[in-house]
Amino acid sequence: MIFNLTDEQATDMLLEHNEDALRQQLHNLPELAREATEQDDAFWQRQQRQISARIPGATSQRGRTAAMAWATGFAVLLLFCFQTNRGLRMDNGLRAGGMTPAVQARSQNVSDGELLVKIEQEIGNVGPEALTPAALLAQEISQSSTPDISNSDRTERDQ
Amino acid sequence: MATALAAPLNPASETGAAAAPAVSFDDIIREHQKRVYRVIYLLVKDADVADTLTQECFLRAYRGLGSFRGECRMDTWLLRIGVNLARDHAKNRRTSFWKRLIGLENSGEDGELQIAAPHPSPEQILLARERLQAVWEAVECLSAQQRTIFMLRFAEEMPLAEIGDVLGLKTGTVKAQLFRATTHVRKVLQEAK
Q1: Number of domains in chain B
Q2: Based on the domain organization, do B174 and B110 belong to the same domain?
Q3: Alpha helices in A55-131 (DSSP H)
Q4: CA end-to-end span of chain A
Q5: Kindly report the CA angle at A50 between B111 and B52, in degrees rounded to 5?
Q6: Which end is more exposed in chain B, N or C (fewer Cβ atoms within 10 Å of the end residue's Cβ)?
Q7: Which of B132, B153, B185 lies nearest to residue A36, judging by beta carbons?
Q8: Which among A14, A36, A65 has CB closest to B128?
Q9: Cβ neighbours for A49, distance < 8 A, ≥ 6 positions apart
Q10: Between helices B160-167 and B171-192, what is the axis angle to 10°?
């Protein structure tokens, strides 16, 4: 029967026979190979890192990413500084340089006059008796703040 | 890690499968590094050299990704690179010996790839390596190709066709070489009894 086999079939049979015989002796070879090359996770991670480090494209890509991060951070910092500076300038402007002394004095006069008028009105309308002297005082102040022609005429005549 | 390695690769170009999920080169390293390392170790019999050659293997794979057209599996392709590196390493060692002998090369390993720092191995790993040594001795007299075929077949349990893919040989050639290898090893083991 074996004489009817082709060379290839004969080789296959002999090879199979050899392999079966060897597998009985070397059945643990795959396991041995795995055990012999067993490494902890740190080894594989280090190996992976070293491969990555040796790939120029990956390095330049990392460099580009880092540069992009730095540029973004710098831009944010600049924007922050600009905004802060602008805010400070606006504050200072409002406090000192924003209004001229004339405007400041006028606004002061306006607010004083308005306040007196309001006090006068309030006291005049529903003011309690205890505040009558204050009402009189307010009336006096308001009269003195508005220049009266008749008053000045009277003064001139007295002299 | 947002690197070029982490960028997804074209799955169709890797596996030939249209619906395969996108994978990065980092994933490829993680998935195959143990097997590549193991096969190279079985061929070079040195853990540090195997580590270095494994790194070199993935480096070459990354550079050659453009030429990988998915005609074979990714692990087959990587093992082909790894086996070639192991073969070149053995050649370099032999030529290095003769060069040193006639004074063309320094006695140090300057021209060799950088060897990674040694790392401690547990007792079990040492025992396994000692047992592997007996197998290495049994295949010592084989040709480099027969030895590689033998290791891929018996240690990695690879199908004959895949061994042929890795080594760039026809399956018939692999069978013939394996038959010679197994016959020789059987004889050695019988003599050793």
Answers
A1: 2
A2: no
A3: 56-92, 101-126
A4: 161
A5: 40
A6: C
A7: B132
A8: A36
A9: none
A10: 110
- Chain B hits for A64, Cβ within 8 Å: none
Min Cα distance A71 → chain B (Å) is: 17
Q: What pLDDT digit, counting tens, does each position of B134-156 carry?
A: 899 999 999 999 999 999 999 99
Q: Residue B151 belongs to what domain range? A: 120-193
Give CA separation, A93 vs A80, A87, A98, A100, B150, in Å: 20, 10, 4, 11, 88
Distance from CA of A7 to the nearest CA of B (A): 11
Token look-up 């309308």 returns A125
**Domain termination site, one of B53, B79, B114:** B114
Contact between B33 and A39 using a beta-carbon 8 Å cutoff:
no
Q: Please give, rounded to a whole number of angstroms, the shortest distance from the CA of B33 to a CA of chain A.
A: 8
* B9 phi, psi to nearest 5 deg: -95, 165
Q: How far apart are CA B134 and CA B49, in angstroms?
A: 20
**CB crowding A100-136: b at 16 or more within 10 Å, else e:** eeeeeeeeeeeeeeeebeebbeebeeebeeeeeeebe
Whole-number Å distance between alpha carbons of B10 and B3 = 16
Residue with tokens 């000192």: A96
Of the candidates B76, B79, B65, which has an alpha carbon nearest to the alpha carbon of residue B13?
Answer: B65
Binding-site residues on chain A for chain B (CB distance < 8 A): 8, 11-12, 14-15, 18-19, 21-23, 25-26, 28-30, 32-39, 43-44, 47-48, 50-52, 54-55, 57-58, 61-62, 65
Task: Tell me the whole-structure pTM to 2 decimals.
Answer: 0.60
B125/A23 Cβ within 8 A: no
Reduce the DSSP state of residue B9 to 3 states and report it.
Answer: strand
Highest mean pLDDT: which range of A10-24, A70-84, B103-117? A10-24
Residues A101-151 pLDDT 10s: 555 555 566 677 777 777 677 766 655 666 666 667 777 777 776 555 455
> Within this chain, do residues B126 and B81 fall inside the same structural domain, yes or no?
no
Per-residue pLDDT tens over the stretch B23-40: 788 999 999 999 999 999
